[in-house]
Amino acid sequence: MAPAHRTSPFFFHVRHGRFEPDNEGRQICSRKEARREALKQVGEMLAKTGTDRWDGNEWQMFVTDENDRVTCVISVSVEDR
Asked: What CA–CA distance (Å, rounded) separates 49 from 81?
């Protein structure tokens, strides 16, 4: 029998001109796993909406823990030159 893993809530907030809070969060086992989930979500969002949406503007995802501490920030910026 595998040992039980304790999960904690992590929240995935987005800022792209305005702040969009994640008020629900997800139960995740570790900060490392929360970072993996954030990268996955960012990749899916880019694939879904394309890069034109953020042309010249930085876009960020902030991962916070249950105490509202930032554990990871992913920044995306697309600029034609």
From this structure: 21
Average pLDDT for residues 28-56, to the nearest whole number?
Answer: 85
DSSP 39-81: HHHHHHHHHHH-SGGGBTSEEEEEEE-TT--EEEEEEEEB---
- In degrees and rounded to multiples of 5, residue 49 shows phi and psi of -105, -15
CA of 81: how far to CAs of 13, 49, 59, in Å? Answer: 29, 21, 18
**Which own/partner pairs from 56-61 qualify as long-range (CB within 8 Å, at least 24 positions apart)?**
57/16, 57/17, 59/14, 59/15, 59/16, 60/14, 60/15, 60/16, 61/12, 61/13, 61/14
Q: Is the pTM of this model over 0.85?
A: no
Average pLDDT for 34-55:
82
